[in-house]
Amino acid sequence: MLRDVLFRLFRANETKVHELNYLFWECTTRCNLHCRHCGSDCMAASEDIDMPLADFLQALDTIPSKERPPEFTVVLTGGEPLLRPDIVEVGRAIRRRGIGWSMVSNGWFYDEAMHRKLLGAGLGALTISLDGLGERHDWMRGRSGSFERAERAITIAAKEPRINFDVVSCINRRNIGELDTLHDRLQALGVKQWRIFTIIPIGRAKDDPDMHLTDAEFVRLMDFIQARREAAARAKDDRMNVTFSCEGYLGPYERKVRQNPFFCRAGVTIASVLIDGRICGCPNIDRNVFSQGNIYQDSLWEVWQQRFEAFRDRRWTRRGICADCPVWRDCQGNGMHNWHGDCGQVINCHYRKTANYS
Amino acid sequence: MKWLHNLLKGLSLTTALFIFQACYGTPEWLHDANLHFKVVAADTGEPLKDVYVSSRVQAADNLDWIPCGRTNEDGEAHVYFGTEEGQDPQFRFERMDSDYKVKDTVLVDTRYRTVEIRLAKAE
What we know:
The complex is a heterodimer.
Chain A: H1 2-17, E1 22-26, H2 53-60, E2 73-77, H3 87-96, E3 100-105, H4 112-120, E4 123-129, H5 135-141, H6 146-158, E5 164-170, H7 179-188, E6 193-197, H8 215-235, E7 241-244, E8 270-273, E9 278-280, H9 287-290, E10 293-294, H10 300-306, H11 309-312, H12 328-331, H13 350-357
Parallel strand pairs in A: 1-2, 1-8, 2-3, 3-4, 4-5, 5-6, 6-7
Antiparallel strand pairs in A: 8-9, 9-10
Helix pairs in contact in A: 8-13
Chain B: H1 2-10, E1 33-41, E2 51-57, E3 66-70, E4 76-81, E5 89-95, E6 103-106, E7 113-119
C-alpha cells in the first residue's frame, strides 16, 4: 500500500537525520519494590551508586542547544527515581537549561507534596505503572501496599493538566483476565492515556511462566485494545485512549492498536545514559552488547553523531527467523530490546504471535 | 535529509507521524508554546548573559517559579513551556550576583514571538 511505502521512506529519512529528542537517564538502580518482571534486576541496595547530577549535566551539556529540538526531553528512570534525595534539584537543573524532563515511577513516594515539588521543578510528563488491581499488582511488584500507593499517585497525576500523564500496565497471564475492570477503574480515576506492554523474557521474567502470554492470549489482548480504540473513536468523547506500546511489529494489528506504525527509534531519536555512564539506545536494550561509549570517556554528543551504527542500519538483524521473514522491511528485526547476548535470534516476535494464532 | 525532516514536521497534515509512541519511557514532555527572549541592559542596550528565565502560570496557587532557560552570550534564551487555556504565563528574569533588578512580566499571546526584555540597574 502507498501508505506503507511512504512510511518506510519517512522512517529511512528519520534514521538518516537521527535527531536526538529523547534522552533517558538511568539516575539510580535502587528500588523500593521487587518486581517480578524487572529487566534490570534492580534492588533497594544496588551495587551501583547513583550517578552524581553534575556528571550527567556535563554529558547533557555536550549537546549543542541549537541541535536540541523543542520536544527534546530528559526521561528520568531507574530503579525508582524518587529514591534520589536530590530529585527536585535534578529537575530544576535540567529545566534551567531550557530542557523539559519527565519521569517513570512506581508511584510509592508520589504524594501531593512530592507532586507539587516536582511540578515546581518543571516536571512535564509522568508515567506511573499499574499492573493489576489490588493484590495482583502487589504480587507483581513484590510488596504489599504497592497498589494503594500507585493508585494514590495516579489519582493525583490524573487531575493535573500541566503534565502529560499516562499509566502503563504489563499484561501477563495473571492479569489478562481483568483488562475490562482495570480499564474501568483507570477511567474512573480520570486517566486519559493507558499504555499496555507485554513482558520480554529478560531479567527476572526470563524463566517465569506466569509472565508470558500465550499466542492466543496475546491476540486476545490485541483484540481488546482494538475494540477499546474503535469504541472511543465512535463515541468521540473524552474517554481514555488505550494504546499498545511501540514494542514490536504487529502485522495485522499495525495501526489498529496504536496511532502510528511500528518504528523502533532506539538509537535513531532515543539515547540513554546508564547508571555507570554507558551510552546506549533505550535502557532495556542489552547494554553489554549495544553500548556505544561512556560519558566518563566520551562526549555524549560525539557518540550520538558518530556511532550507533547497529541501531541505524538494522540489516544485521536478518538472521535466525528474521532471515527470510516476509515482513522484515516493515519490522526490521522488531524492537532492539529483543536482541540479547550473542544476538543469534530475536527473542520475541510479536508478528509470529499474531500469525501463529490466526 | 534535514530539510525534508523539517518540512514534514512543519506540515500540520503529517505531524501525526511525529507523535511519539513510547515503548519504554514516558509520553513526551508537554509544551505548547515557545518564546525567544532577548535580554539587554536598559541603560546601554548591551546583551546580558547568564540571565535566568523562570515561568509560572498566574492562576496557579502556591507554585514555585519554574526555571526554563538562561541567556547566552548574545543575551538570547529560547524557552518552551506548557500553557493552559485562559492562563497567561508569567516570567521572571534575574541575573545572579549582579546589580540588575529582577524583572517579572506577564505575556499574553505567547506563541512564537521574540520578546525583548530590558533589565534596569538596581538603585
